[in-house]
Amino acid sequence: MSRRNLVYPFTAIVGQERMKRALILNAIDMRIGGVLIRGERGTGKSTAARALAALLPEVDVIADSPFNDDPHNPDTWSDEVRERHERGETLPIAQRKIRFIDLPVSATEDRVVGTLDIEKAIQRGERHFDPGVLAAANRGILYVDEVNLLDDHVVDLLLDSAAMGVNVVEREGISFSHPARFILIGTMNPEEGDLRPQLLDRFALSVEVHGIPDANERVEILERHIAYETNAEAFRLEWEPEERILGDRIAAARQIIDEVQYTRGDLRLIALMTSSMHIDGHRADLVILKAARAHAAFEGRRQVSRNDILLAIELAIPHRLKRGPFADAQVNMAALQGELEQMEAEMGEGEETAETSQTSNEKSPDSKKKVSR
């Protein structure tokens, strides 16, 4: 049995529902843009990240590509695979468990993005690319522990790639590109410093985790960890049915994510909520929509609901509120629901007023003239 299969099961993690939800939504749709998990030591941050990688289903890849290219999506192929295809080469396909790439805090820019061999390009006319961390992480999980201690420029590179889904390296007029779509998971301990607000905003979702205060749940944590340490294989087998169920749900959600519909009213509701909270820019609005669609897909639905939007706001807003980075960064769901209902009521009144006005205008030619002035 490989060490990968002996990772602590995701479904065996006690509590921390918000953290698990954020990870699952990113697993369903990598386009969401990653999650930042902030909390004290011993709260299961790294355990959950590694467990997610072991849980996810295998994916089809071009077997001999270092970029894990998707054989079914030629639009995303790396330059290397695209050139091979154009030469008429056969591209072997294999199934592979997604990779879990652990980025060290000391990582440099070249280590992350990869390097082009300029000497070979000039002397031999060959374009040789040495893949970096982003290539290895494509279609997998890129885990950055103590992300707040990483160089800001490197964090920027990671977040850019997570948002765009592609890595482009240019040197001396020579360029190379490859897909770089991955689940970015950053963890940090607030006692060791915080991220700049500009970088916080770049993380799509955020959660703050704490030790569980409930005595019964703490006992459950102890019992499960003792069982895991005593016989990891037996513990894995015990939780395998739950792992399979969750893995299948994620795989099914991935299949329908692009079919999930939303209304203009949903968009307006999201915009009104972010506007009322004085959230800068439009990134949060997009993240909420993507996360809401992913949650709907996870529930097996093809239509976004108000509850999907609520749960997405809960994860997308805390680190963007203007009260200092992560100051009281828990959003109260009851308060959110109340505000959402108020917004919906105001939207309904506005639509009703507009409809009444339109009906009145249709009946009165004079009113049409007034509108045109």
How would you sum up the global shape?
A: globular
- Our Rg estimate from Cα atoms comes to 24 Å
Order of strands across the main sheet: 4-7-10-1-11
Question: Helix segment count?
Answer: 15
CATH class of the largest domain: Alpha Beta
The second-level CATH architecture of the largest domain is: 3-Layer(aba) Sandwich
Number of structural domains? 2
Distance between the termini: 78 Å
Summing up helix and strand content along with how strands pair, one would put the structural category as alpha/beta
Largest sheet: 5 strands, parallel
Could you explain how this protein is built, in words?
It is a single chain. With 373 residues, the chain is of the alpha/beta class. It is built from 15 helices and eleven strands. The strands form four sheets. The protein has a five-stranded parallel sheet with strand order 4-7-10-1-11, with helices on both faces. Strand 8 and strand 9 (174-179) form a beta hairpin. Helix 10 packs across helix 12 (283-298) and helix 12 (283-298) packs across helix 13 (306-316). It starts with 16 loop residues before the first helix and ends with a helix.
Reconstruct the topology from this structure.
Elements: H1 17-28, E1 35-39, H2 45-55, E2 59-62, H3 79-86, E3 93-96, E4 100-102, H4 109-113, E5 115-116, H5 118-124, E6 129-130, H6 133-137, E7 141-145, H7 152-164, E8 166-171, E9 174-179, E10 183-188, H8 197-202, E11 205-209, H9 215-230, H10 232-256, H11 264-276, H12 283-298, H13 306-316, H14 333-363, H15 365-372
Parallel strand pairs: 1-10, 1-11, 4-7, 7-10
Antiparallel strand pairs: 2-3, 5-6, 8-9
Helix pairs in contact: 1-2, 9-10, 10-12, 11-12, 11-14, 12-13, 13-14, 14-15
